[in-house]
Amino acid sequence: MTTILNVVLFSSLFVHIVLMGVSLWRTWRGENVIDRLIAVDLLGILTLAVLVIISIIERDSVFIDVALGLAALGFVSTLALAKYIADEQMF
Q1: I need a surface site. Which of 3, 16, 60, 65 has the fewest CB within 10 A?
Q2: Residue 81: CB partners within 8 Å, gap ≥ 6?
Q3: SS3 of 60, please?
Q4: What is the pLDDT of residue 90?
């Protein structure tokens, strides 16, 4: 049972890291600001998923705490950037 779980976890980790590379490429080569904002948000979500998968592999809950803090920071920064793009002013 544990070998099957390890295979699934490591293959999932590999897929998420590949998707992070695709998202990073889209951030770098995005056509407009909205595409880049969505790619950065996706990159943050994939980073959270990688941290949770590493937490499951290592059996350590510290990574989940870091992921929760990063999720809160990512949410606030996405809202701030979206408001800046929409209104062209920060406050």
Answers
A1: 3
A2: 37, 40
A3: coil
A4: 64
Which distant-in-sequence residues (6+ apart) come within 8 Å of 25 by Cβ?
none
Tens of pLDDT, residue by residue over 30-83, are 888 888 888 999 999 999 999 999 999 999 889 999 999 999 998 998 888 888
Domains and CATH numbers, the chain: 2-87 (1.10.287)
Report d(CA 48, CA 34) in Å as an integer: 21
Q: Given pLDDT bands bounded at 50, 70 and 90, which one contains residue 85?
A: confident
CA dist 4 and 67 (Å) reads 25
Q: Which residue stretches of the chain are H helix?
A: 2-28, 33-58, 62-87
